[in-house]
Amino acid sequence: MALIRVPQSWQLPERDVTSEAAFFNRRRFLKTLIGAGVGGSIAGLWGCQAQSVEGEEPLLGTSPLQGAPNPAFLDAGSDRPLTNEMLAATYNNFYEYGGSKHIWQSAQALPTEDWKVEVTGLVNNPRTFDLDDLQKTFPLEERVYRFRCVEAWAMVVPWIGFPMNALIAAVDPTPQAKFVRFTSFYDPQVTKGPGLHSRFLPWPYTEGLRIEEMANELAFFAVGIYGHTLPKQHGAPIRAVLPWKYGFKGAKSIVSIEFTDTQPATYWNTISSSEYKFDANVEPQVPHPRWSQAKERLIGSGSEFSWEERSTLLYNGYEEYVAALYA
Ligand code: MTE
């Protein structure tokens, strides 16, 4: 894989995968919300599905993929090594496939064959790309980004993909385009996550940006990770990566990109606008209503029951790139 080498010391024991018990997370909140509206119909779906992955293969279906290392984005900081690949591949948020972090097996139901991404709305060149088109149109690069979940855990991940501004150039938004909406794959026959069929949850998963944010050089579409195509649990075959925002802004398994003149409704913001802002920038001084954002835990670091804490960085450490967007 390109120039990214993963030293042995980062190959952390599998026991670290089970450390989430100590964490705040949104499952309890959602359980309450759904429980209030749907009674027992989804009872049981929220149970912890922690499973050993020993001897199993969380990278099913991936193939090697190279991107030219982008020297501007190869160093995520001296205090934080690259996250162990197997840990990242078995500690996921992908609610379409379950309510625990351990959804990598159920996510294998995602059908990625003949994938198409439709780019529509206020653009002069609407396009439908298949994966071949995407890779032929947009040269792939590799970038190591810090990643910060709103639940206060963090990782460092080497992505392979292309900058969103290259897609903007290809489809040429009209002057009326002010926002963009990303929509994730949704098929009630396949996506069987908790409450998925509840009329109280705004499926499909959608996310959005202001167009200036999408044009920022950090904004990225990933088609690979750790030197291979994305495994399904990371959002194959294409997902958004926005390293200065909380992880929920990065919609997985994108099927549609729509340019609009008004701010689109988005999944988490529709569920709770006070907890999941549309902007969702990483800001240590702005607590989530139910927990502080001043610190974050680096997954896989430290001991089994206590991942190491770091101070959260404004805009996740990407202030120089994005502060002007919020001046
Ligand atoms: N995209 C979809 N379609 N569904 C999801 O549940 N979860 C989000 C984001 N994208 C999510 C999603 C959240 S909350 C996070 S933290 C990241 O994906 C997790 O990405 P990872 O599992 O690849 O680390």
Provide tags for this entry.
single chain; 327 residues; alpha+beta; Sulfite Oxidase, Chain A, domain 2; eight-stranded mixed beta sheet; five-stranded mixed beta sheet; 7 helices; 14% helix; 20% strand; disordered N terminus; binds ligand MTE
Largest sheet: 8 strands, mixed
Q: How many structural domains does the protein architecture include?
A: 1
CATH class: Alpha Beta
Number of helices: 7
Number of strands: 13
Order of helices and strands: HEHEEHEEHEEHEEEEHEEH
Describe the structure.
Helices cover 14% and strands 20% of the residues. By secondary structure, it is an alpha+beta fold. The protein has one domain (18-48, 70-326): Sulfite Oxidase, Chain A, domain 2. The strands form 2 sheets. Strands 1, 4, 5, 8, 9, 10, 12 and 13 form an 8-stranded mixed beta sheet that branches. It has a 5-stranded mixed beta sheet with strand order 3-2-11-6-7. A hairpin with a 2-residue loop joins strand 8 (220-225) and strand 9. It starts with 25 loop residues before the first helix and ends in a 5-residue tail after the last helix. Ligand MTE is lined by residues 92-96, 149, 184, 205, 234-235, 247-248, 250-253. Residues 92-96, 149, 184, 205, 234-235, 247-248, 250-253 line the site of ligand MTE.
